[in-house]
Amino acid sequence: MAYSTIVSRLQTDVREATGVGTVYDYKRHVTADQEFNELYVRGSQILTDTGFDDNQKWSSATWAISGSQASVTATGANKDLSQLNASFASPLSTGTYLLTFTVVANTLNADAGQVSGICSATDFSFGETGEETTVPITVNTITGNFTLRVKSSNTSGSITIDSISLTRTGKVHYWEISREVDDDQSDYNTLVVTRDVYAIEGWYSLDDSAESEKTFQAEIDSVVLQLHQDRALNGNGHISEPVRKEVNNEMKGGILCHHAKLSVRVIVPQETT
User: Fold this and answer.
1) Maximum Cα interatomic distance, the chain, rounded to a whole number of Å
2) 92 vs 139: CA distance, rounded Å
3) 23-24 and 171-188 as β-strands: parallel, antiparallel, unpaired?
4) 48, 55, 154, 273: which could form a disulfide with 65 (CB 3.0–4.6 Å)?
5) Which residues lie closer than 8 Å to 261 by C-beta, 6 or more apart?
6) CATH at residue 122
7) Same domain, 66 and 140
């Protein structure tokens, strides 16, 4: 019971200090795709009207916005669909973004697409009917408009899309807790005192353009401060010495991350009969 109670309290402290919704209570080896995807947090949505519900949010002389979908027929000329920078839901900054949308129907003869306006012209191929198309782009101007193009090399056919999304490339950002050392016990007649070391580890994707080092270091300091302020662990034990920090960079799930390991020594007195 002492282990689960202490871990639960440490989880609460980390959540309050970081704002991370889930703090794992066991060692999590990020190897399986489904596990990694749970930890890979995407940035906030940039576009408004991602469901094509408001044709006033979009600008095009050739695309049709109707029934929560966008569609266009190829004629051998460029067909542009744009959303103005002023309509973006979030401030746009330079960096790497991920464009995704679902192909409802596709009979284009060339499948040739392009993204421009907020980035250098980036070519891609539209997916098949029922598939999701994913396009990584590098935003190099924060004042341009977002433009999705069906290129002129498409001379016949049509395409319909929905569920369009533009988000900052995701990041690894999570914390986990485990009991690293079952240290020792002392027996004082009817009182047994356990002394254990708990490891609290955090990972955060390294991104120099976003000054991720400063962000994560501030988060580490917040966790340590929260632990020191809650040394009695809400009456469930006692942090017996200052929290020790180890900070480095390491790979996690193929992503270079900032990594912190906090060692927390906890004593818990238990009455025995």
Assistant:
1) 90
2) 8
3) parallel
4) 55
5) 199, 200, 201, 245, 246, 247
6) 2.60.120.260
7) yes
Asked whether 144 and 122 are in contact (CB, 8 A), the reply is: no
**Which burial class, exposed, middle or buried, applies to 229 when counting CB atoms under 10 A from its CB (0-12, 13-18, 19+)?**
exposed
Residues of the chain above pLDDT 90, percent: 60
The amino acid sitting at 77 is A
CATH of residue 21's domain is: 3.30.2000.30
Confidence of residue 34 (pLDDT cuts 50, 70, 90): low
Print the domain residue range for 176. 2-41+171-271
Compute the distance between CA of residue 263 and CA of residue 241 in angstroms, rounded to an integer: 10
* The residue type at 181: V
**Portion of the chain with pLDDT greater than 70, in percent:** 90
> Token digits for 190?
């009817």
Measured CA to CA, the distance from residue 102 to residue 50 in angstroms comes to 11
207 with 248, same domain: the answer is yes
- 177 in Cβ contact with 199 (< 8 Å): yes
- The DSSP letter of residue 243 is P
**Cα→Cα distances 220→121, 216, 231, 245, 259, Å:** 39, 6, 17, 9, 10
Q: Is 121 contained in some domain? A: yes
| CA-only gyration radius of the chain, Å | 26
Boundary-marking domain end, from 137, 168, 199: 168
Is residue 94 within 8 Å of residue 140, measured between CB atoms? yes
Helix (H) or strand (E) holding 220: helix 212-229
Residues 196 and 164 in one domain: no
Q: What is the pLDDT of residues 201-215, one digit of tens each?
A: 999 999 887 899 999
DSSP secondary structure string for all residues of 83-101: E-GGG-SS---SEEEEEEE
48 within domain boundaries? no
